[in-house]
Amino acid sequence: MCIRDRSTLELSIQMCCISLLRFISDHIADLPLFISRQLMDENDVLMVLVSLIENKPWIAKDSKGKRIRFENQKWEVIPPGEFHKVPRMEAQVWILIYNLLGSEYGQKSYAITGIRKDALIKLRKYLNEPLFDQIPALQNLLRALEEMALVTTSNTTENRMFIVQPVPPFRDEVLKNKNWKEIAENQKKSIFVEETPEQKAAEAKKLLGIYESAAFEEFLDPPKCGKCGKSAGQRCSRCKHEWYCTRECQVAAWKAHKPMCDLLSKKCGLMQVKAYRVACVLRGFGVLGL
């Protein structure tokens, strides 16, 4: 795997983690209190989120100097009219910050030390009208940060005599006696591997073999005569593909149909027939513009 692909994969995984954290924060009021404490005190996720907002890893410039953004698990050029549009991942981070600071734990138990205060109030310079137009709830976040800036804080946290936190015992069992380097190497060879053209062809052949006509005819439009276009009830006995309304239409169309009929009726043309049937089904569902 090249360095560029690896960095893109790592960024994709990191963005997925942000999405998972945002989902957790949406339901944080229904979760045990120790989860909020683990996120905000033990891991201090808010400080990480502030750093993300400042550095914006989802925005970059390509080799031609064009601004690009990381959307839908890939990099894409930002259209000129969307420079002020908030990228999806940045919106996720803002909502995550809003949810955590607005939670019961964030308001009552999260210790705002001097270091945390200095980091959080830096967010004010990014909270502007274009951002409020897209995420209106962030106006409340700005007011909370303005109030925080007026509060006197210290760099010491409150000492708690008792901290009760359940520890899942199955995690230790899962991690115990595992050679993770060996597991990673095995997955790299068996999962994260580029398929050869022969393997891709074999997979395509296997897939096409599934799509027999009997299974998909019910999804196709009613057959039309290949000559006059009227509803048809008779099929060519050789290729089993073209339809006709009468014997006369079949005879009249035979000269034009014969080359394709010869191809479709041969064994070497079997794969082409199946591929064409799949294409017809996909076209019926609007997948292919054939």
Describe what you observe in this structure.
The structure is a single chain. The chain has 290 residues and is mainly alpha-helical. Helix content is 56%, strand content 6%. The strands form two sheets. The protein has a three-stranded antiparallel beta sheet, with no helix packed on it. Strands 4-5 form a two-stranded antiparallel sheet. Helix 1 packs parallel to helix 4 and helix 3 runs antiparallel to helix 4. The longest helix is centred in the N-terminal third of the chain and has 24 residues, at 3-26. The chain starts with a helix and ends in a 6-residue tail after the last helix. Mean pLDDT is 80; it is low at 284-290.
What's a quick, concise take on this entry?
With 290 residues, the protein is mainly alpha-helical. Strands 1-2-3 form a three-stranded antiparallel beta sheet, with no helix packed on it.
